[in-house]
Design a protein that fits this description.
With 136 residues, the chain is of the alpha+beta class. The chain has helices at residues 7-13, 20-28, 87-102, 113-123, and strands at 5-6, 32-34, 37-38, 44-45, 50-55, 58-64, 81-83, 128-129, 134-135.
Length: 136
């Protein structure tokens, strides 16, 4: 077993990216970090490194348990890495999912008058008059 493997090969081997080219592009665009430092695709990974991958809006973190240059079966991936993403980052995934559900379906047309009023009421800020405790 090797002591070091290129980051783009390892990301592809553990199935974080569909192709090695996509893994290399992500490195070039600064979406892959090791110890909070952007890395080039040729950077070597060692066992014990924590690799962060940016997938907007979330920063996923993975700890390297073993190295491989060859793409593996999905069942073998847990032997090579463990997901150590923080709970606050996982919350962002849930918020994005909820936000996507609240959008209007594409092609349903413009909102009706009633829907427009409901949207305006929802987004319009409410100001309280501090002296009289009344909504303005």
């Amino acid at each position: 077993m090797k002591a070091e493997v290129r980051i783009d090969k390892w990301l592809w081997a553990v199935r974080l990216f569909k192709t090695r080219t996509l893994a290399a592009e992500a490195c070039k665009k600064g979406k892959v970090l090791i110890q909070n430092v952007q890395v080039k695709p040729s950077r070597n990974v060692k066992v014990g490194d924590v690799i962060c991958v940016k997938h907007n809006p979330v920063l996923f973190s993975f700890k390297v348990l073993a190295l491989s240059e060859n793409r593996m079966n999905a069942k073998l991936v847990p032997d090579f890495m463990v997901n150590v993403t923080t709970p606050d980052q996982l919350e962002l995934i849930e918020l994005a999912r909820i936000a996507a559900q609240n959008n209007r379906d594409r092609g349903t047309g413009r909102p009706t008058k009633k829907e427009r009023r409901d949207i305006d009421d929802f987004f319009e800020p409410v100001f309280w008059d501090e002296e009289e405790d009344v909504v303005i």
